[in-house]
């Protein structure tokens, strides 16, 4: 069995007090160190694009959800 290492990228959302309110795993990347070549190190372009796309999706969705929750108001009395 070869030696492997795994990196996990997580995105954490915190509230105004710095408490973590949500953690989302963006990607896990593994490298088998048994016989690596130069091409095995770092992110391939496609992997980097996938990480960026997932980050953008998660951040944008959280921002939309937060903005939507803050702008809701009661149709009966108008309070938020």
From TrEMBL:
Recorded superkingdom: Bacteria
Protein name: Uncharacterized protein
Organism: Phyllobacterium brassicacearum
């Amino acid at each position: 069995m070869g030696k492997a290492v795994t990196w996990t990228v997580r995105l954490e959302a915190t509230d105004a007090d710095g408490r973590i309110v949500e953690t989302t795993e963006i990607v896990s990347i593994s490298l088998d160190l048994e016989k690596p070549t130069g091409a095995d190190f770092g992110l391939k372009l496609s992997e980097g694009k996938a990480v960026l796309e997932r980050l953008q999706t998660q951040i944008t969705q959280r921002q939309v959800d937060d903005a939507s929750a803050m702008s809701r108001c009661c149709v009966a009395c108008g309070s938020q």
